[in-house]
Amino acid sequence: MKEIKKNLFITFTPYQFISAYNLCKENYQADEFVNIIYFFKSNKSGYEISLKFEDFNGEIIRFDDESWLDLIMSLKDQVFCRFFFFQENSIYNKYLAYHLKKKGTIICLGPDGTKPYGIFNKKHEIISILKDTWRDYKLLKSNGLMLNVLMWSKYYRYGSFKYLDEVWLQYPELFDAKKNKTKGKIVKLPELNSENITKLSKAFKFDCKLHEKDGIILYFNQPFYSKPLIDKEFEILEQISISFPHKKINIKLHPGTNPSVKDKMLGKSYLNVIEDKMPAEFYLKEVSNSIVLTGWSAALMHDINKNNNNYFYLYPLYKKTNDKVLSQISLIGFPHVKMLDNIKELHFM
């Protein structure tokens, strides 16, 4: 009889949860594995889901802010084969990883959206590391958690946490391990399986709010808080409407979109505004022969159905605003996504 191997996943966003579920189904579905996925419940992902997933060998458990610290304390003394976490900047994740590593657990960093593919040119990075490390340890102490080892908080590197064994990536060939001072082995993630997305959408009780699904323009917005980026977003949307006067732009709002921005969008006749907390990937699976675009959201990292869609990142246009944060980032594009320098380059297949 084979030894049972328990894998632990801590996920905070729908994208992380989808990645964890897909990884379990594609790599750890055999009888020898038991997969435990914890999925954070927040205002942005507060929808209920069916926790009894068909053919899933393990458990899916929701948790929230109030139970997070207790969960850490209960998990840190357990034995797991692998521990996957997706937010390297979380001192709590690193605290848990440190304790599990001592028990022989393989520590794995799962994909945190597009972050692995952004090169940060942070000014005065050493000063930031010192400040962030001090702030993180102060946060641990204030919550009764103590570490007797030093773990630097390198927010502007990816996979540099010294206790990592594996860094899982969708596009290893696009990742600069040397620049990021990455620790651990680089492992390629399995492709996002369309059938797995279908199962998840049913479990989430997904109800698609698109009036049309073929030959449309679908835009996934992001929560911008600087005025230049907000103004640029409206400028881009208006330019698209001028380029395609006979088509409405379907805009799937991010749950964190500024309420004043949302209200302004609702007042634009050329926009079909979709207010839905469901993951963008569920909408992506529904459309075909369409233009799909976003600033630099992770939603477009996967060509899920290969339904003759044209994918575009508007990142180069947003970067022209000289936004303080964007000016320090260089984003690498993906094979199926075109970096857009001019709205006139938008086209259907």
Secondary-structure blueprint of this entry?
Layout: E1 5-11, H1 14-27, E2 33-40, E3 58-63, H2 65-75, E4 82-85, H3 91-102, E5 106-109, E6 118-120, H4 125-142, E7 166-169, H5 177-180, E8 185-188, H6 194-203, E9 217-220, H7 227-243, E10 249-252, H8 259-266, E11 271-274, H9 280-286, E12 291-294, E13 310-313, H10 315-319, E14 329-331, E15 337-339
Parallel strand pairs: 1-2, 1-4, 2-3, 4-5, 5-7, 7-8, 9-10, 9-12, 10-11, 12-13, 13-15
Antiparallel strand pairs: 6-14
Keywords:
349 residues, alpha/beta, seven-stranded parallel sheet, six-stranded parallel sheet, 15 strands, globular
Task: Report on the architecture of this protein.
The structure is a single chain. This protein is of the alpha/beta class and 349 residues long. The protein contains 10 helices and 15 strands. It has helices at residues 14-27, 65-75, 91-102, 125-142, 177-180, 194-203, 227-243, 259-266, 280-286, 315-319, and strands at residues 5-11, 33-40, 58-63, 82-85, 106-109, 118-120, 166-169, 185-188, 217-220, 249-252, 271-274, 291-294, 310-313, 329-331, 337-339. The strands form 3 sheets. A 7-stranded parallel β-sheet has the order 3-2-1-4-5-7-8. A 6-stranded parallel β-sheet has the order 11-10-9-12-13-15, with helices on one face. It has a two-stranded antiparallel ribbon with strand order 6-14. Helix 2 (65-75) runs parallel beside helix 3. The chain is globular, with a radius of gyration of 21 Å. The mean pLDDT is 91.
Helical residues, percent: 25-40%
Principal-axis shape = globular
**Largest sheet report:** 7 strands, parallel
Computed CA radius of gyration, to the nearest angstrom: 21 Å
Strand content: 15-25%
Task: Please provide the ordered H/E string of secondary-structure elements.
Answer: EHEEHEHEEHEHEHEHEHEHEEHEE
Distance between the termini: 53 Å
Number of beta strands? 15
What do the pLDDT scores average to?
91
Estimated structural class: alpha/beta
Tally of separate helices? 10
Which stretches are poorly predicted, pLDDT < 50 over at least 5 residues?
Answer: none
Strand order of the largest sheet: 3-2-1-4-5-7-8
